[in-house]
Amino acid sequence: MHLVPADRADRRTIDGHRVCDAIAAIGDAGHVRSWADRFALLADPKRLALLIALHRTGPLAVSDLAVATGMNDPAVSQALRLLRAAGVVEGEKEGRIVRYRVVDPDVQGLLKHCAADGG
């Protein structure tokens, strides 16, 4: 099946079948954008540290995350706000305490490879 878009059909290819396979592998631009957005969230070392802590330990409150990561409470809250808006984490309220956990299964899969012990 020939998948080269019309706007690129006049360009010379070396391995045309592989070009078509690559186009199929890339797929929908919206899907690629969604993954790029996820990677952008993970690209910040502090957000990544928060996610690793949550992934490895389970639900934690803002103040506990601040201690664990060396961040201050407002910075943790701001990072969690971004992660919550992206659907990566959710908060569970118990009285006045909100504990956060990672809920995005794709991000959880990526975090398995980010732990200090490799697992």
TrEMBL record:
InterPro entries: ArsR-like_HTH (IPR011991), HTH_ArsR_DNA-bd_dom (IPR001845), Metal_resp_trans_reg (IPR051011), WH-like_DNA-bd_sf (IPR036388), WH_DNA-bd_sf (IPR036390). Signal peptide: none annotated. SMART domains: HTH_ARSR (SM00418). Residues 27-119 form the HTH arsR-type domain. Keywords: DNA-binding, Transcription, Transcription regulation. PROSITE patterns: HTH_ARSR_2. It holds the Pfam family HTH_5. This is ArsR/SmtB family transcription factor.
